[in-house]
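I would love for you to help me understand the pair of lines that follows before we discuss the fold together.
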Amino acid sequence: MFSKILIANRGEIACRVIRTARRMGIKTVAVYSDADKNALHVEMADEAVHIGAAPSAQSYLQIDRIVEACRKTGAQAVHPGYGFLSEKREFQEALAKAGIAFIGPDAHAIQAMGDKIESKKLAKAAGVSTVPGYLGVIADDSEAVSIARDIGYPVMIKASAGGGGKGMRVAWNDEEAREGFRSAQNEARSSFADDRVFVEKYIQQPRHIEIQVLADGQGTTLYLGERECSIQRRHQKVIEEAPSPFLDEATRKAMGEQAVALANAVQYKSAGTVEFIVDAERNFYFLEMNTRLQVEHPVTELITGLDLVELMIRVAAGEKLTIRQEDIRLHGWAIESRVYAEDPFRNFLPSTGRLTHYRPPADDPHVRVDTGVYEGGEISMFYDPMIAKLCSWGATRDAAIARMREALDQYYIRGVSHNIPFLASLMANQRFVDGRLTTNFIAEEYPNGFHASDLPPEDPAVLVAVAAVIHRCLNDRDIQISGKMPGTRAKVRDDWVVVVDGTQHPVHLSPAPDSPQRVGYTVDIAGRHHTVWSDWQLGEPLFRGTVNGQHVCVQVDRVGIGYRLHHSGSQALVKVLTPKAARYDALMPVKAPPDMSKFLLSPMPGLLVSLAVTEGQEVKAGEVLAVVEAMKMENILRAAQDGTVSKIHAAPGTSLAVDQKIVEFA
């Protein structure tokens, strides 16, 4: 067994590998860029080596520097995590040449499966079901249109070396095929330095279901059940779960056996994932094989009881697997939510900055948090904006969903925008609860983007009652202030008006009888009694307790004379006023926001790649105005209405901030 390994990655996956290595008694080496010198994975590792500037191309993608870090520290093996160099044949070969073990498959398997065109040919030869399509390299957009017509629309245009949703477009007609080919090719060139693109039939109403495989290269190859990864946005997974609510035992077995056949065909060794598209009749087709650990591997670990990172390390050290296929049992249900620093209310724009407050839910047998950040740390513009992977486990799918909803309520993040409101909405969506999933789920359920109205409806009495109790506790403390004049007597009033987002709710509070917790009140709202019990203490950001016997967790921020409360993904500005103050408050004017409808604003921080208009030009609604690149993804900005360009505020090559003016209309 290795005594020291290096993790050629960063963030949550580096921290996750370090935790397993530490448990195995293996020392760890972290590598870091300028942007990550204070990162959590650097702090957790036994040693750390600086490898370059902040951009990944100058640090985490520098093979020579990582090999040198191994030599310098005496690391005997490298775990690549996912992304970066994890599926680079050249990296595995460089390590092998230096006598360093790669905790992953051999170079020939990485090469065979890393090329989407060649991998489909290999899959077909191995007897694996594949999607109809054209697997040759396409020369230009005209040829792409011709091929798409032959296959029949809709088609999927993909970069051969793609991954992570980059270099992928769905086309329903010639114009979209032409535009999609160019964008996919540009993204592929930017992200993978390989602009080859191919076309295949787009399966409608598809599910994305993948099989986890594990092989020791010594005769044992296993499949560890499946993961349902259909909840995606722009081909990026958002929610994953294991097992799938759709598969039956026969389909699971057939998919698993085909995944094993493909792994054996390339002499696979280590953990890997074979991804399939599954249609409404449970026909399944090979999509691709990821020759690395998947982001969503924790849900498989939660239902199998296996530590995939440990097994990868043991296989790389030459150990044989001691488990057999008949030993694999799936217990309960697990769900993973990807928590990102992005603003779901603004088309999921990436959010960067410092985490001024960060309190994830506590790990327990039902909740797991894989994270690589900490309070006071930064979300960098240079890397993926993932904050954490939040996982829940339950004996049933409904139990796992309920646990996830509770955990999302408890996840306290401030300083950057995050997607927890969107995740909460997904967990409460009845179609999701019913398991009626496809890869089009988000596009169909949120056709106009995500808005506050998409959040689960909540009884306003919950927030009203909690706000009233919080305010009562603060007032109880205030009247105990020292230094009062002799004979001064103060009494906290019982009648208040709780103003929630401008709506007034008169309330009456009285101590709850026989309270089992420190705080107990009965709150009368419009003639209905609500009993609130909690052990909340002043200043705590989470109000945990019960309202009418139902457990609640409400996040509390003090804002001026009021509060901002977060619950079930929604937030509300709340003031608790005396009846007289409430009457005056109702008369206060509301300041209207400035009119920005005459401007094209950058929806995200990014690079202005191109500008398609000039001053004085007339444009029509839907016409392309500009292209902004963010996180290596091209975003096409179109005109919302007809107009005339009066002024250009930014030139191509400009680094844009959120809401920065690009074009002004007359």
